[in-house]
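Anyone opening a protein record will find just a pair of labelled lines. A complete record is shown below as an example.
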Amino acid sequence: MARLATVGADGAPHLVPITFAVHGDTILTAVDGKPKSTMRLRRLANIATNPNVSVLVDHYDDDWQTLWWARADGVARLVDTASERREAVRLLTGRYEQYVATPPPGPVVAIDVGRWSGWTAAAQG
């Protein structure tokens, strides 16, 4: 499970689960076709106001020796070229079988990662 953290103009944090693909030091995510209450998504408005974001991916298990997390801090931007959008959707479709039949129709967000960090319980023992 991955989560995207943004901050709005009011300074309030906003956290949403996302699908994603990684290409080098760029994380790609898109607004997919699942029902939403509005297409004026807060995450997109927040990125327009403050493009600094974090993405957190983690794994939980009752066996705490298998716990881990990874975080990417970066600058988000909306993809605005057709070729970059095609490549992002291709990468997302490669990760998520559900996107083969229904590719994400909404905006694509590219996060240019400036800092990667993480932790694993296995490295502690």
